[in-house]
Design brief:
heterodimer, A: mainly alpha, 3 helical TM bundles of succinate and fumarate reductases, 5 helices, about 0% strand, elongated, B: about 250 residues, alpha+beta, Ubiquitin-like (UB roll), Fumarate Reductase Iron-sulfur Protein, Chain B, domain 2, about 15% strand, 2Fe-2S_ferredoxin-like_sf (chain B)
């Protein structure tokens, strides 16, 4: 019976003497965002997370129909991708039905993706500052894209030069 | 010229149940080094023994500084949950022959909790979450003079979640908990489930309120790590989903 030590074990300094002893133990390695005695006070209640979770499920179902329909029309049916041009888009957006379709797709896809990324940030970003900045960037990009897309769908002018 | 006695001794020696197993243990001692490191121990052991027996053998015969928790050693107290070959298990319920003793058996502390020494972690954050879901019977009115009766069907409703031994194998196998210790974790939800679905209890709404918040059940990603890890075979993910369903049906 024997034991072999793998890698560097124990001693913290090169001359063999440890930096740490009984009276000066090394710091404990804390896991990210560990719960402390103060945590319960800052616990957020409310139903926002539930509505967020429900929205993901419902918007997901609607998006399957909207996106697959969109892809079929744009890329497969009636000549496929070669038919797409300014005239094709202009013709489609002349109809309120396709305006509503694209508007719904824009809003649902953006909010679905944003909510998904928000949970990813919540899951993986450890420092409060990082979380704040990442979410700020995310929400800014979302608001910008949604507003710009909505503006284009409603103010699209087929006679533009 | 072998005598019958010698034959018997030789036969016994050749049919020895012992094999050589390597235990690769994650060691950490803050009084020696700030870094955790792997250490190998080779020992002769019967493969029908448990991982805990191997750890005992190391502690008693090879290296007395090896530190780990264990109390009953029979899968009831929930003290010796650890990460064995990359999976959370109870050392006292894991037979060496079942986890491939030809290769080194890795033993680590459970993840997501601060390691104090070797395999010992700080369980306080885990128990704090447990306390927050109020894991006790809450009733109103006068206390009955005899026991609170319940039909077999009502008891069956939460039977699965009564089996929890609070070993933290589920919570410390959850990837959300690894990255964000604020999440309640599967074990707290399981113990809330045990009272939320108890027909005698009256604080179900309060518990749902707690678990419906920012760090509650909605952070579950249904990876089923907890169900895989549970040494008691509790369907943990199913219990979490049932709490989610209760939260939704309460609203709509």
């Amino acid at each position: 019976m024997s034991d072999t030590t793998l890698g560097t074990s124990g001693t913290g300094s090169p001359d063999g003497a440890s930096l740490y002893d009984r009276d000066h133990p090394a710091p404990i390695i804390e896991p990210p965002r560990q719960r402390t005695a103060k945590s319960p006070g800052t616990r957020a209640r409310g139903n926002f997370e539930m509505y967020g979770w429900l929205f993901m499920r419902l918007s997901g179902i609607v998006l399957v129909v909207l996106v697959i329909g969109h892809l079929l029309i744009q890329l497969v049916l009636d000549g496929g991708v070669s038919k797409i041009g300014f005239a094709f888009v202009a013709g489609r957006w002349a109809s309120p039905w396709w305006q509503a379709w694209d508007l719904g797709m824009l809003w649902l896809a953006m909010l679905h993706g944003t909510n998904g990324l928000r949970t990813v940030v919540d899951d993986y970003a450890e420092r409060p500052g990082t979380r704040m900045w990442l979410k700020g960037l995310l929400y800014t990009a979302t608001v910008f894209t949604i507003l710009l897309g909505t503006l284009v769908i409603f103010t699209f002018d087929p006679n533009i030069r | 010229m072998a005598t019958p006695t010698m034959d018997k001794v030789e036969a016994e020696a050749s049919a020895s149940p012992y094999i050589t197993v390597t235990f690769r243990i994650r060691r950490f001692n803050p009084e020696v080094s700030a870094e955790a490191s792997w250490e190998d121990f080779r020992l002769e052991i019967d493969p029908k023994e448990r991982v805990l027996d191997g750890l005992h053998k190391i502690k008693w015969e090879l290296d007395g500084t090896l530190t780990f928790r264990r109390s009953c050693a029979h899968g009831i107290c929930g003290s010796d949950a650890m990460r064995i070959n990359g999976k959370n298990r109870l050392a006292c319920k894991t037979l060496i022959k079942d986890i491939g003793p030809e290769k080194p058996i890795t033993v680590e502390p459970i993840k997501g909790l601060a390691v104090h020494k070797d395999l010992i972690v700080d369980m306080e954050p885990f128990f704090q979450s447990y306390r927050e879901v109020m894991p006790f019977l809450v009733t109103s009115g006068n206390e009955p003079t005899r026991e609170r009766l319940q039909s077999a069907k009502d008891r069956e409703r939460f039977d699965d979640t009564t089996k929890c031994i609070l070993c933290a194998a589920c919570t410390s196998s959850c990837p959300v908990f690894w990255n964000d210790g604020q999440y309640f974790g599967p074990a707290a939800i399981v113990n809330a489930h045990r009272f939320i679905f108890d027909s005698r209890d009256e604080a179900g709404d309060q518990r749902l309120e707690i678990l419906g918040g920012q760090d509650g059940v909605w952070r579950c990603r249904t990876t089923f790590n907890c169900t895989d890890a549970c040494p008691r075979g509790i369907e943990v993910t199913k219990a979490i989903q049932e709490v989610k369903r209760a939260l939704i049906t309460r609203r709509f």
